[in-house]
Design brief:
Helix content is 83%, strand content 0%. The chain is mostly helical. The chain folds into two domains: 73 residues; 57 residues.
């Protein structure tokens, strides 16, 4: 790639700037509303907010996307597909980490519950044995 190619960037129309900016703003508003309604936790929202920030940066500075396209030597559509794939990969990784953590937590809770049930059975079993002993006369009393 020669320097002359870098200076010959295509003209970006207003549509190339407005549509991604509108989509980024819609994502931010939707994420904030989901957080406010407690439908989405903040830890999961960060990835969506990061994606909308990147989209907004490319909307404000569309030549950055063009430079990335030239630097990688691929077409515009390929950049969009790669970006979407990378985002989905990060989202899947983040959700996989969360699922693993929740699985471990569930296993620990189930083990603790089992131990507590065993203690309760042992405690209630010893009380019923004591109450049965009180109803029957002891062999030492006479």
């Amino acid at each position: 790639m020669n320097p002359q190619e870098l200076t010959q960037s295509p003209d970006f129309t207003l549509v190339h700037r407005i549509i991604p900016a509108i989509v980024a703003v819609i994502i931010v508003v939707a994420v904030v509303e989901l957080i406010r309604r407690r439908k989405l936790r903040e830890e999961y929202a960060m990835l969506w907010l990061l994606a909308s920030a990147v989209l907004l940066i490319f909307a404000v500075y569309p030549k950055l996307l063009w430079l990335l396209q030239k630097w990688l030597g691929v077409f515009y559509l390929t950049i969009m597909v790669l970006g979407s794939f990378f985002f989905l990969l990060l989202l899947t990784l983040r959700l996989g980490i969360s699922i693993s953590r929740l699985t471990d937590d569930s296993r620990q809770i189930a083990q603790r519950l089992s131990l507590l049930e065993r203690k309760i059975e042992k405690f209630t079993g010893s009380q019923t044995d004591d109450s049965n002993d009180k109803d029957e006369p002891s062999p030492h009393s006479a």
